[in-house]
Please model this.
Amino acid sequence: MLLMNFKERWRAAELSSAIEVSLKPHSVWVSSSYPRSSLETICRKISLMVINDFRRVDNLPKRLSEQELMSIFFNSFSILINNSLNGEILTKDDYIIIALAREFSALVDQSHQQELINHAVSVIQLSNNWDKHIIKSNQRANIRFTV
Model:
């Protein structure tokens, strides 16, 4: 992210704005209890993670479709889970992004494209496995410090 050139940072800012405009009225965000002040930070972080997916798009849209928004959250989810499994410490905003991706995956039904359905299923499976991994890690940590 630090090596991004000016054009990529500009496009990431545009994408962040499109994500924010699309997410703000969405039922997943409206029904959540997450702080409204974190919306901009979350959108900025997501846009920096997935800007490479939009490299071939000349003009970024001002607003994303529901499927594009879901796909962005699913891709961010995968990146964050991989970071976690590689030992990186996740921030509060990272956990919010993961939780929102899980919420989006619960909304996917047969009316969506097959690719999105497959991605949602993998988000659900991976999040369940990640939960198990965290529980096992915590159990191991507790066992080490038991006298």
